[in-house]
Amino acid sequence: MERVILAYSGGLDTSVAIPWLAEKYDAEVVAVTLDLGQGKELDDVRERAMAVGAIRCHVLDVRTEFADEYVLPALQAGALYEGQYPLATALGRPLIAKRLVEIAEMESATAIAHGCTGKGNDQVRIDVSARALNRAIRVIGPAREWGMSRPAEIEYARERGIPVPATVDSPYSTDLNLWGKSIECGVLEDPWAEPPEEVYTLTKSPAGAPDAPAYVSLDFERGVPTAVNGVAMPLVELIASLETIAGAHGVGRIDMCENRLVGIKSREIYEAPAAVVLHAAHRELESLVVPRDLDRIKTGLAPVYADLVYNGLWFTPTRRAIDALVADVQQRVTGTVRLKLFKGDCRVVGRKSPHALYDEALATYDEGDQFDHTAAEGFIRIWGLPVELAAAKAAPAKAATEATPAKAAPVS
Ligand code: ARG
Q1: Whose CA is closest to atom 9 on ligand 1?
Q2: What is the pLDDT of residue 396?
Q3: CATH hierarchy code of domain 176-353
Q4: For 143-175, what is each residue's pLDDT tens digit?
Q5: Which residues on adjacent β-strands are paired with residue 339?
Q6: Which string of b and e fits 65-97 if b means at least 16 CB within 10 Å?
Q7: What pLDDT is attached to residue 407?
Q8: What is the DSSP letter of 131?
Q9: Nearest 5°: phi and psi at 44?
């Protein structure tokens, strides 16, 4: 008999997967539920897994590992997929794969399984990550194999006495962790349709947000956010507290049409109040302390990093190499950023750092200006020399075309 380690959320798909794996593969199923900060009560998840036929259920709190080793490097790299999505779901997948593989090795299992469908990115992320960590382990995706429609799946569940949660009535497919929430399906599949207010659970409607703005100050030490409004806290709590403040001010709603790895475009709604604030603050502090040429290189890698996270390439030499460069840059990223949150808007209003490259004596237009204005003239002559030369060479050609107009001038 084969033993399979299943990533178990407690929802309908992965609940149905337990008897399905047992029947189809004659397997005994060990369920694994990870707490990535989805905030759901995970106490009864073990009983639910056992009730539908799992032989064991491991429930693990991986929030700190997720925040420190997955979310933080992505924040420091400035990873926003297609300029917007902070990658909450995508960042969770390699960690899920890692834990599944570790438990499979511990349990002497030959396969791992997950509830991802066959047309999303998540299956790619879990399968590729698992194979990077252990090539011998087989990955089974019941939901991409069974070919059951939603009603057929509910019927299958009812026949086997699997409790069908009331939430299956929700038309939306969601994924939640401490870095944000992803929402798909239902009316959202029409990219022209405005998302109904009910899809949002982490953010207040900007229109209903407080009439007075909130000011938030964020301290960073070597690229790590360490305190909110002067109160030091570990990253997991810092993210949670920012989610509360920013969410209350309607900050963090994202509505986009994105390119999935499998080639389709999909309309996605995200709520990521803490991620939006932290990315804005971190970027701003880097702008203050990172030399121009290095900043260009570093920010140029942000979309590369976002793509590789999105496309399931976490456990790769490329990701590790970019991490090394980003980590080096972070050594200067110490300081404080002040932000104003107001009716859905998140705006940086102040920044300071002991490593600031900003020098008021050089920047000022007031008294005490130390910039050498006379040096500017010579600098500009030499800077502009190639421009002058190229323009001078181009001049005759331009004159020639002007001399022979293609069309006669209109007679007025
Ligand atoms: N489009 C996002 C991504 O690929 C969100 C996926 C949401 N996943 C889910 N199981 N609902 O990362």
Answers
A1: 175
A2: 63
A3: 3.90.1260.10
A4: 999 999 888 999 999 999 998 876 666 889 999
A5: 216, 348
A6: bbbeebbbbbbbbbbbbeeebbbbbbbbbbbbb
A7: 60
A8: H
A9: -90, 5
Is pLDDT of 402 > 60?
no
Selection from 81, 126, 116, 97 nearest residue 260 by Cα: 81
List, in sequence order, the alpha helices (H) in 249-291: 273-289
Lookup: tokens for 246:
């920013």
Residue with tokens 């309309």: 267
Residue 339's identity, in one-letter code, is L
Q: What whole-number distance in Å separates Cα of residue 380 and Cα of residue 384?
A: 6
Ligand 1 geometric centre to CA of 175 (Å)? 7
pLDDT score of 399 more than 80 = no
In this predicted structure, the answer to whether residue 383 has a pLDDT above a threshold of 60 is yes
**CA-CA distance, 117 to 100, in Å (whole number)?**
18
300 touches 325 (CB < 8 A): no
With a cut of 80, say whether residue 125 has pLDDT above it.
Answer: yes
* Confidence (pLDDT) at 167: 65
CA of 116 to the centre of ligand 1 (A): 10
> Is the whole-model pTM more than 0.85?
yes
At 403, is the pLDDT very low, low, confident or very high (cuts 50, 70, 90)?
A: low
Q: Residue 219: left (phi > 0), alpha (psi -120 to 50), or beta? A: beta
Per-residue confidence at 42, pLDDT binned at 50, 70, 90? Answer: confident
CATH class as words, domain 2-168: alpha beta
Q: For the chain, which residues make up each domain, given as ranges?
A: 2-168, 176-353
Q: What is the DSSP letter of 70?
A: I
The length of the chain in residues reads 412
Assess whether 93 carries a catalytic annotation. yes
For residue 156, report the phi and psi dihedrals to the nearest 5 degrees. Answer: -55, -45
Q: Collapse the DSSP code of 88 into the 3-class scheme (helix H, G, I; strand E, B; otherwise coil) and give the result.
A: helix
CA distance 168 to 184: 14
The 10 Å Cβ neighbour count of residue 172 is: 17
Mutate to test the pocket of ligand 1, among 260, 268, 309, 313 (most ligand atoms within 8 A of CB): 268
